[in-house]
Amino acid sequence: MRFGLFVPPFAELADPRRVADLAHIAEESGWEGFYVWDHVLGRGGMGVADPWVTLAAVATATERVRIGTLVTPLGRRRPWVMARQVASLDQLSDGRVVVGVGLGHDGWREFRAFGEAVDARQRGRLLDESLDVLSRLLGGEPVHHQGEQLTVDTEPFIPLPLQDPVPIWAACQWPHRRPLARAARLQGCFPIFPAPMPPPPPTPDEVGEVRAELDRLGAAPDIDLIVRCSLSLEEPAALRRRVSDLEAAGVTWMLEGFGPGEPPAPVVEQIVRRGPPR
What we know:
This protein is of the alpha/beta class. Helices cover about 35% and strands about 20% of the residues. The chain is built from 8 helices and 10 strands.
């Protein structure tokens, strides 16, 4: 089991320098991953930082933690631009990048406000097409693609990322099973379980259902299974039992999750300084 942080770069944390300082504290405190949300709008006009600029600052402030987005709605990113960003960030971080992808949602009008497709099925098809192009570009091959929504005709992208492959994790809203077929082809699955905020850890039975479905779909035995929850709100003895049970059910990463501006940045910093449960 590995432990990481799931950080929204919103409100006070819309300052990339403050997020980079937080990532440095996280690394010194024993956390193994530092993942940021990828949004362009926030609730009620809240400040939002660009995740890729922020992660570049994080890369220069850290040496060991895995870093990446959780998750990028790939349907509103040009995959060739994102391929350049991922490769550059992987070079900058000495091979520590994880790419999280997902469908995204329009709850804060992040698609509608900019004339982007709102229909989930249309965005799902664009996500899969974009993911195919992104993976091929990151793999260093020429890409000649004429698809439903994308056209690409290019020689290999250089420089390549240091990692081969760069781990890609796909999000899914459980219990929807169709997105699991996407995750099963990749290096990680990030199931988001129905839960109040702040979210408690999922149950081992819930995780076991996800793991069984991934196995049925042909996922690699070593696929990462990532869950987010509010670890800091759990009583220590109960949390240790929960961690053990979830690890046995197949979880490989547990992420301490925060909400946009909640709790305030100073409280987030205190929680991070305490380190992960051991």
